[in-house]
Specification:
By secondary structure, the protein is α/β, with parallel strands linked by helices. Helix content is 41%, strand content 14%.
C-alpha cells in the first residue's frame, strides 16, 4: 500500500529552515507508532513535496537520511519503502527521537562544553606514546602507581607554574589526580568532617562542585556575586549560620559567567577563611595555559587553607586524564593519603606521558595556536551577537549571554537545539533553589569548524532579534 492513499500526513510546523530534519523526524515517529508499517511504500518525492509544500530536494534529503539510518530502503524504479522489521536493528525501530543520529550530528553545532582544536597536540601525544613504548622497563608496566612513579609529572607541573601566583610550594605539596574533578572530590573527602558537612559555591558555578558535594555527603549553599566577585557578607553569614567548612570557587574565570574576582575581594575572602578556619578550593581549570593571572590565588593569600586545582583538559586536551592540586601548607601528606585510598594514584602511563608532553619545545607554539583559534571564535560571536549583553574574554573558551526581554533561558536553549545549536542555560549552573537567570552559556568547541560556529551564532542572533510574542495572563 502506498502512503499517499492513507490519512498519514507529516506536519512541519515550526521546522524553520531545517525542514528536511523535521520531515525525517515525522517519518521516524510514524514508523515507531505504527502509522507506517514495515514494507509500506512512501509517496514519490515530487508527490510528497507537493502535498506538504516543500521542495523535492527537501523530501529527497529526508529520505536519504532515513535510508542511511536503515529505516527506509530504496530501489531504482521501485520506490522507497519502510524497511522490514527483521532487517533493521531493534534499537533503530524503538528509538522515537533519534536526536543524535550521525546525519544530524554532522550538521548540529555542539557548543555544550569547551573542546580544544587539534593544532598539533595529537602529534606530540603520539610521540609520547612511542617514547613510552620504547623507554619503559618491564617493572614500570607491572606495578601500582605511587608518589615515586608520578614525581616526573609533579616536577613538570611545578615548572609550568613559574609565573603563577599560588604562593611558595614544593613538589611534595602537589598531588596528581584523574582530572580536575577528581582533585576536587579528593580535597572535600580530605577536609570535610561531621555527619552533615556544608560547602558554599558561587551562586552560578561549575556543576562539578555540586556533584563533588553529593559524593562527599555535603549540603551546598550559594554565594551571590556583585561587581567585585562573591559577596563576603553573605559568605560570612553562611559560615556562621550554616556551618560552611569549604568554599568552592573560581577566582580567575567563573564558569559560566566568565567573570573574575577582583584582587581586593580575594583578599577579603581570604581573611574570612583565616578568621573562621574554612578551606577555599580555587578551581583554575578554565584559564587557558600560559595566560596571565588577574590576581593572586587563594592559596597565595591563605597558604594554610587555600587549595589550587587545575588540569590540561580545557587548555590542551581532555583526553589526557590528569589533574593537579597544590595543597595548603602541611596538607600535602593528608591529600596524598586520600589519593592512595581513592585509587592508588594516577597510572605511570599517564603521568610519564604528561611529563614528556610538557618538555616538548613545540608545546608553547601549539598552546598559542589553540588560544588563537579560541580567540577567533570568540571574536566572531561578539561581532555577530553584538548589541546583546555578552560577557567574554578571548582567553576563555566560553561566553555568557544574557537574554533580552521575551526569552526565558530554558525556552531559548530548547529552541536553539531545535534550530541545530546546542548550548547550556543558566539553570545548568544554578542551585536547585537558586535565583532564575535568563542567560545561556555558549562554549567554544574547537572541533567545530569556524564557519560552522559562525553559522550557529547567526542562528542565535536571529532568535535574539525575534523573541516570542507571549503574554502571560
Amino acid at each position: 500500500m502506498i502512503v499517499s492513499d492513507t490519512k498519514w500526513q507529516p506536519s512541519l510546523a515550526g521546522a524553520g529552515r531545517a525542514k528536511y530534519k523535521a520531515l525525517a523526524q515525522a517519518i521516524r515517529e510514524a514508523i515507531v507508532s505504527g502509522q507506517l508499517s514495515a514494507g509500506e511504500q512512501l509517496p514519490p518525492v515530487r508527490d510528497l513535496a507537493y502535498r506538504i509544500n516543500v521542495t523535492p530536494g527537501t523530501v529527497a534529503r529526508a529520505y536519504a537520511v532515513l535510508t542511511d539510518e536503515g529505516r527506509l530502503t530504496a530501489g531504482v524504479g521501485r520506490g522507497t519503502f519502510v524497511t522490514e522489521r527483521k532487517a533493521v536493528a531493534q534499537s533503530v525501530w524503538d528509538a522515537p527521537a533519534m536526536l543524535d543520529n550521525v546525519a544530524e550530528l554532522s550538521e548540529r553545532v555542539h557548543l555544550l562544553s569547551p573542546k580544544m582544536p587539534e593544532v598539533g597536540q595529537g602529534a606530540i601525544m603520539r610521540g609520547a606514546l612511542q617514547a613510552l613504548a620504547t623507554d619503559m622497563v618491564p617493572e614500570h608496566l607491572l606495578n601500582y602507581p605511587s608518589r615515586v612513579t608520578d614525581i616526573a609529572a609533579r616536577r613538570a607541573f611545578k615548572a609550568s607554574l613559574t609565573d603563577t601566583p599560588v604562593g611558595p610550594f614544593d613538589e611534595n605539596d602537589v598531588i596528581t589526580s584523574h582530572g580536575g574533578q577528581s582533585a576536587i572530590i579528593m580535597i572535600l573527602q580530605t577536609v570535610l568532617h561531621g555527619p552533615s558537612p556544608v560547602i558554599a559555591v558561587d551562586e552560578l558555578s561549575y556543576g562539578g562542585f555540586r556533584s563533588a558535594a553529593v559524593m562527599s555527603r555535603a549540603q551546598v549553599v550559594g554565594v551571590p556575586w556583585d561587581d567585585e566577585g562573591p559577596d563576603p557578607a553573605v559568605l560570612e553569614d553562611l559560615i556562621k549560620t550554616q556551618g560552611v567548612q569549604v568554599f568552592c570557587t573560581s577566582a580567575e574565570v567563573c564558569n559560566p559567567t566568565v567573570r573574575t574576582t577582583s584582587t581586593p575581594r580575594r583578599k577579603q575572602i581570604a581573611k574570612l577563611a583565616q578568621r573562621y578556619g574554612i578551606h577555599i578550593i580555587d578551581d583554575d581549570c578554565y584559564r587557558l595555559m600560559r595566560t596571565e593571572h588577574n590576581g593572586p590565588s587563594y592559596r597565595a593569600l591563605a597558604p594554610d587553607l587555600g587549595w589550587y586545582v587545575t588540569s590540561p583538559s580545557k587548555s590542551l586536551t581532555a583526553a589526557l586524564r590528569i589533574g593537579f592540586a597544590v595543597a595548603p601548607l602541611d596538607w600535602g601528606a593528608n591529600l596524598a593519603r586520600t589519593s592512595t585510598f581513592h585509587s592508588f594514584g594516577v597510572t605511570r602511563l599517564v603521568t610519564d606521558m604528561y611529563a614528556y608532553i610538557m618538555a616538548q619545545p613545540e608545546l608553547p607554539d601549539i598552546i598559542e595556536r589553540i588560544k588563537g583559534r579560541i580567540a577567533e571564535d570568540v571574536r566572531a560571536a561578539v561581532n555577530i551577537l553584538g548589541g546583546h549583553k555578552l560577557t567574554w574574554s578571548e582567553q576563555v573558551p566560553f561566553l555568557w549571554l544574557e537574554l533580552p526581554m521575551g526569552w526565558r533561558a530554558g525556552e531559548f536553549k530548547q529552541q536553539a537545539e531545535t534550530a541545530g545549536v546546542l548550548i547550556k542555560s543558566a539553570e545548568d549552573f544554578a542551585l536547585r533553589d537558586g535565583r532564575s537567570n535568563h542567560a545561556v552559556r555558549i562554549a567554544i568547541n574547537g572541533q567545530v569548524s569556524h564557519e560552522h560556529f559562525a553559522s550557529g551564532m547567526q542562528t542565535l542572533r536571529e532568535m535574539l532579534d525575534n523573541p516570542p510574542d507571549i503574554i502571560s495572563v
